[in-house]
Amino acid sequence: xxxxxxxxxxxxxxxxxxxxxxxxxxWSAFCEDPLWSWAFPDRDNLAVWWRFLIxxxxxxxxxxxxxxxxxxxxxxxxxxxxxxxxxxxxxxPMLEDLLGTRSEAVIELLERFDASHPxxxxxxxxxxxxxxxxxxxxxxxxxxxxxxxxxxxxxxxPAYLESSNPDNDxxxxxxxxxxxxxxxxPDGSQTVATMWREAR
Length: 200
What we know:
8 helices, 7-stranded mixed sheet, alpha+beta, Aminopeptidase
C-alpha cells in the first residue's frame, strides 16, 4: 500500500474539501461509542450530527487528518466558539427532527457538556478524535494526538477534552491529561470524564 492508503503519512490541516472524509472517519470511529450510541441509536442520525459539528469546526485551521483519512482530530483553538450563532439556533430543531421526543434528553446532555467546560483559562479544546475502524490498532489516533499536542505545547497553552468512553481514559492520561470531573447522561446510564492537560 502507498501512503494514501495505509494512513501513515504525516498529518495535515483539513479544509472544506475534506468534510466528507473527516465526517466518515469520525462517524465510523464513534458508531460503537457508549455515550454517542446512547444519544443517537440510529447511526445515520449520528452521521448528520457529526457532519454538522465538523463543518462548523472547519472555520478554524485546527481540524487535522492523516492521509487516507485514517485518523482525524477536531480542535477548537482558545477563545473559539464551537458553533456560530446561526448554527446554535439550528441545534434544537435539528435534534427534534432527528430524534423526536428523545431530543429533550440529548439536548440536556449537550447542556451538561457546556456546563462542565472550563472557562477560567484560554485553552485548546479537543472536540473529537477518532480512527477509522479499518486503521484501528495501529496507533494512528494517538500519534495524531501527540503531534497536535506538540504544536499546542509550542504555544504554551493547556488543553481540555471529554472522554465519552472509559476505555480511552488511560490513553489520555499517558499523554498528560488528568481527570478533573465527570457528568452523566440524564438517565445516569453513561458517564463522561472531563480531562485537563496543563500548559507545557
